[in-house]
User: Fold this.
Amino acid sequence: MPEIRRLPAHLRPRREKLFGDGRPRPLDRNAKVRIKTLARAMMRRTEKGKHYGQITAKAFAVLEALLWHFHNARSGLCFPSYETIAEAAGCARSTVAECIKALEEAGILSWVNRIKRVREQSPDLFGHNGWRWRVIRTSNAYQFRDPLPVSRPVPLGFGCKSENLSGTPNQDSNSSSSRPARPELDPSDPLYTSLMRLGRAIGAVT
Assistant:
């Protein structure tokens, strides 16, 4: 990413524009903590004379606001406006724009432009009122990079803190194909009577 930033503006790849919600990516709490820890490590000084590293304290505040205030862990949606981020992070709108660029260069996040079609009234060539469709940009859709992605993601909404799925790793694969035992029915049970009556009606029981 830093190499791309060094290129002239007309040679850089254009930002992707997508209709709808962009490219949402769900993240559980553990993944968000990993991203936050990586960003905190990048705040350490790497050069003499500088009081910060690749990420500044303001960029870290913007990242925290995006992760914990606006990112939906279950759906992965995250597309707040610069003004909303600035209010949550306690900084100016222009600072948010610079911080997001720094976070992208550091490999913490990426984003696409969200666009939508709007129908507006406009005069035609003869001066008569008509309608036209116009594509406008709404906001950015942010996606965060987990520094330690899991091969088998844990379904969200469960209280398990471990990222390992339950079960024995070396469990015999044939055990999953075994059929469960058929339950015994009590002939005096009304359910048994009803099932037998239905079986005789459809010809399944003689």
Remarks:
- The first helix runs from residue 2 to 6.
